[in-house]
Design a protein that fits this description.
The structure holds two protein chains of two kinds. Chain A is mostly helical. Chain A is built from ten helices and no strands. The longest helix of chain B is centred in the middle third of the chain and has 20 residues, at 24-43.
Chain lengths: 203, 65
């Protein structure tokens, strides 16, 4: 008699092994665990229009590649790498954005090394969700993220929006952790500037 | 950047922390830098629509049949 392992309590890695061996319930549990997260990250890396295709392609690739999952990274990291690559494929098909200078979004300092802007101007980005209504904020937030240079967007979405560790993001993107930290930092500066702009206050 | 990331050695971090706490402009800048991800995370937290979920499940059933 075969011992039945409760699917919902199993680790991702156990489920992956069972799914790779042809266990349909294990594969369905993987889908149930990750479909919402994959859709969300797809929206953040591409758009709501493209996200359904990214979602479908991700699970197609997961299904096909499960037998080659060796546990060298956590299963979640492996799956996020597939989802990120699926999103980048869609994005590559779109027009490349022109590069934007970071300088305009850097904090400005006076001759004494003090912030040149007033506290009210400096803090305005942190009050964006109080200053504009919810629907407008959703639209502006999507536009702000889409406006980021692609490499900053990828690092920021995975690190700050999906709340992955810097090490995991580095694995997903195939770069050094220091590179992830630098890209995320630049993305935060840019986005802080974009948020200040959208509530109509000078940085 | 290291200060904002919270990865500075404790002594250097403490010195900067003391400066930021005493400087209204730095406090405002650091607050906005740290709040920006939270605001964007909340604003972009979409749900998976039921019709897209059902399309995915139908696609995966066909794939495995």
């Amino acid at each position: 008699m075969t011992t039945v392992v409760p699917t919902a309590d199993s680790s991702d890695e156990t489920l992956a092994a069972r799914a790779a061996a042809g266990d349909d319930r294990a594969f369905e549990e993987i889908v149930a665990r990750y479909e919402r997260r994959v859709f969300r990250v797809a929206c953040r890396l591409t758009s709501e229009t493209d996200a359904p295709d990214v979602l479908q392609n991700t699970f197609l690739q997961v299904y096909r590649n499960l037998p080659s999952f060796r546990g060298e990274s956590r299963f979640a990291t492996w799956l996020y790498r597939i989802a990120t690559n699926a999103a980048l494929m869609v994005r590559r098909a779109r027009t490349r954005k022109p590069a934007e200078s970071l300088d305009a979004f850097m904090p400005r300092f006076d001759e004494h090394g003090m912030h040149a802007d007033l506290p009210a101007q400096l803090q305005v980005a942190s009050r964006a969700d109080e200053l504009i209504d919810r629907q407008a904020l959703v639209e502006k937030a999507r536009a702000a993220i889409a406006r980021l240079p692609d490499v900053y967007r990828d690092a920021f979405v995975l690190r700050d929006l999906e709340e992955m560790s810097t090490t995991d993001v580095a694995q997903v993107l195939g770069v050094e952790p220091a590179t992830v930290r630098q890209r995320v930092h630049r993305a935060r500066l840019l986005l802080r500037g974009y948020l200040s702009d959208l509530v109509g206050v000078k940085r | 950047m290291e200060y904002l990331e919270g990865v500075l050695p404790p002594e250097t971090n403490a010195a900067l922390e003391a400066h930021v706490a005493a400087c209204e402009r730095c406090t405002a800048f650091v607050a906005s830098y740290r709040e920006t991800p939270r605001i964007l995370r909340t604003a972009t937290a979409v749900e998976l629509p039921a019709d897209i979920q059902e399309s995915l499940h139908a696609f995966l059933r066909r794939l495995r049949s």
